[in-house]
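Reviewers of the previous submission asked for a worked example of the structure-prediction workflow described in the proposal, so we include one complete record here. The input consisted solely of the amino acid sequence. No template or homolog information was supplied to the procedure at any stage.
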Amino acid sequence: MQIFINGQWGLIAGTVTDNALNVFCQQLFGVDNYDEDYYDSFWVYHQAPIIADTFMCDGTEQRLIDCTYDYVTTQIEPTDSVWLICDVDGT
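From that input alone, the workflow returned the following structure tokens.
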């Protein structure tokens, strides 16, 4: 997952609540549920930096950036990024 914060695109890593994943899918695709999420992705190495960690949402937010999160100031391995599949067809 990537997000634009403080003028920079970067990856999201670490803890992301179910509500945050749902907010992300709602923002992008208009669906309020996700199908799968992955952590510690091993099949690809990202060039983008990790800039946000520990997203906490209560589910009422319109955008992921409206949730509470930690801005990353130290280096985190790109393999700790969060992957998400949104359930856009309702299955």
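The chain is about 15% helix and 35% strand. We consider this example representative of the routine output the project will generate in years two and three.
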